[in-house]
Amino acid sequence: MSTIIYHNPRCSKSRQTLELLKNNNIETRVVEYLDTPPDAATLDEALNLLNIEPRQLMRTHEAEYKDNNLDDTSLSREQLIAAMVAHPRLIERPIVITEHNGKRQAAIGRPPESVLDILP
After folding, report:
1. CA dist., res. 115 & res. 106, Å (int)
2. Short-list 104, 9, 108, 16, CA closest to 59
């Protein structure tokens, strides 16, 4: 099984989720997404795995959301994803993606226990 966490070490929920993975002996690749933002294809895949739309993955209270008029309902999926790539602080955290027996799944660690649903 492979597991990735898109992590912000300054976020308590992200730290709790990473600790939960460690406590369950899940070997995890940690991607500090503020330093190494996911590209558009990775975000698109995460959205598809989560079965949500881009705004549902966005932190709408961040200044970048307001500064870039991202509440504009005419913006396309691609434009919203591009905004998250350009401004990774907009991305809700943490995102955990697992692959087990060829099946990929994702969960947002809010609450941290929600990632237990995608672990084998």
Report:
1. 8
2. 108
Whole-model pTM: value is: 0.95
Residues in the chain, overall count: 120
Residues with a known catalytic role: 11
Mean pLDDT of 28-55: 97
Instruction: Find where tokens 């079965």 sit.
Output: 51
What is the per-residue pLDDT for 55? 97
Q: Which helix (H) or strand (E) holds 5?
A: strand 2-7
Domain 2-118: CATH architecture, name and number where available:
3-Layer(aba) Sandwich (3.40)
* pLDDT band at residue 97 under the 50/70/90 scheme: very high
Q: Contact 93/8 with Cβ under 8 angstroms?
A: yes
